[in-house]
Design goal:
A hairpin with a 2-residue loop joins strand 1 and strand 2. Strands 1-2 form a two-stranded antiparallel sheet. Helix content is 66%, strand content 2%. The chain has five helices and two strands. Helix 1 packs antiparallel against helix 2 and helix 3 packs antiparallel against helix 4. The chain is extended, with a radius of gyration of 31 Å. The chain has two domains: 70 residues; 67 residues, no CATH class.
């Protein structure tokens, strides 16, 4: 005879707790689902990126050796495929229903923005007839300027991390030193014999 387990009954016994989900339960399960789906999407996204490195390099090499319909045609097809797959994976879809934060991206500090600034320095130095040493010095100045512009935010982050570390740190004076531990062990040995 097959026994069917009904809500409120486990193994023929009445449950002491209600089996209906609580109000926060559905939010909790959605959160857990979002965490698991996010991890899966990160894995897929990283596998795709891992595959794109050699594929894009081979495509670029083929484009350099064989002239296509336009310069870099195969490479740009690989980029379009990568962009399309990124939309399909949609790693951050879990936050679409959440309100947007106040965090705004300053275009000057995106990877493309920083690269454009550094490229501009190299081009200006080259146009002035600069040598490798002067281009290096100009790049150093540009990087120093980026550091100065982002120093305040970096200091804030560093201070928050340092404060958290200080709160987690155990004061060294409260830890027993080796002599006290060894003395306590010796004392126990003598008391145990006597």
């Amino acid at each position: 005879m097959t026994r069917i387990v009904l809500p409120g009954r486990i193994g023929g016994m009445k449950s002491l707790s209600p089996t209906l989900p609580t109000a926060g339960s559905s939010e909790r399960w959605r959160f857990l689902r979002d965490v698991m789906v996010f991890q899966l999407k990160l894995l897929l996204d990283n596998l795709r990126d891992f595959a794109l490195v050699p594929i894009s390099l081979v495509a670029a090499l083929i484009d350099l050796v064989y002239k296509g319909e336009r310069e870099g045609a195969l490479f740009y097809k690989v980029l379009r495929w990568g962009a399309h797959s990124e939309e399909v994976i949609d790693v951050y879809s879990a936050i679409e229903d959440h309100p947007a934060g106040d965090f705004k991206v300053n275009r000057n500090y995106t990877v493309d923005g920083v690269i454009a600034r550094l490229e501009g320095v190299v081009v200006r130095e080259y146009e002035k007839g600069g040598t490798a040493a002067s281009i290096k010095a100009a790049l150093d100045r540009a990087i120093d300027q980026l550091h100065r512009e982002t120093k305040e935010k970096g200091d804030l982050v560093r201070d928050v991390v340092a404060d958290a570390a200080d709160k987690l740190r155990i004061p060294i004076g409260t830890l027993p030193n080796e002599q006290k531990v060894e003395g306590a062990i010796e004392k126990e040995r003598h008391e145990g014999k006597g």
